[in-house]
# Entry
Amino acid sequence: MILYSYRRCPYAMRARMALKYAGIEVEHREIELRNKPQSMLLASPKGTVPVLCMDGLVLDQSLDIMHWAISQSDPDGWGSADDAIAQAWIAKNDGPFKVLLDQYKYPNRFPELDQAPVLQEVLQIMLLPMEQSLQATQYLMGDTMTWVDVAIFPFIRQLSMVDANKFEQLPITAIKKWLAQHLDSELFHSVMHKHPVWRD
Ligand SMILES: N[C@@H](CCC(=O)N[C@@H](CS)C(=O)NCC(=O)O)C(=O)O
# Structure
């Protein structure tokens, strides 16, 4: 099994974490976004990571890789999340929140936008609803971790790193605790090792 991946990509992180959690061994192929290997583009012409290539099957959506991994092995019950609620979180994360995150992270690409109102919108649409959930229960879907926490955490990490001081000032204590727990986890560290770039 081959995984095409990019170390800092949040979609690739969620896939790597799910594969590791399920105990699935892959050949890791680290790519450069500006110089994608032909073998990856042959398997998945759309050219995004992660891509998991198996015998006769290519999965090129991070969530498909997560779900496939969990279907193989789910030792801690990551899969036991209410489907409708899970989908609503993911739709918000991968949709409007990701759009705002890019606007916040790459102000040069959006010179017409000020960062402060973008951060306010992030707070309103994503962080405050998350904070409310995480004040009530330890994880987004209840008191046990599920794939939803793992799928969303890399994006919150990215947000927190844009301007650590601003993030620290936000009134989101439960999110900060949840984020720190994921950042400190053995699982996260185990998928962040550096790999040399793969050449076909
Ligand atoms: N819907 C895809 C999105 C993956 C994605 O957009 N990955 C980015 C890297 S974070 C990518 O590969 N972009 C292609 C590029 O920048 O050329 C998934 O969930 O796997």
Q: What stands out?
A: The pocket of glutathione is lined by residues 6, 9, 11, 33, 47-50, 61-63 (CB under 6 Å).
